Amino acid sequence: QGAVVPPDSQENILGTRWLGISKSGYGIHGSVDPSAIGQQVTAGCVRMSNSDVEELFDIVPLGTEVTIVD
Question: Which of the residues 29, 31, 47, 50 is marked catalytic?
Fold first, then answer.
């Protein structure tokens, strides 16, 4: 909803990184609940472990095309 929530906040459910994609409100992000990764429990985002999304964040250039396949 446009709010900036610090990674260490109790209100943060997105983990340590957010990579937005062209579909507004959707992205690739970490998780504060690693046990739920791989389950369909969000509104359509791709969740990864924080360590994996941190690595991805560091190596993927801005503007990289993203294709999500179910």
Answer: 29
pLDDT digits (tens, 9 = 90+) for 17-65: 999 998 888 899 998 888 988 888 777 889 999 999 999 999 999 999 9
Asked whether the beta carbons of 28 and 66 are under 8 A apart, the reply is: yes
Contact 67, 34 (CB under 8 A): no
Please, are residues 29 and 18 in contact by the beta-carbon 8 Å criterion? yes
The pTM of this model reads 0.79
CA 43 to chain centre: 12
29 among known catalytic residues? yes
Is-catalytic flag, 40? no
Work out the number of other CB atoms within 10 angstroms of the CB of residue 8: 7
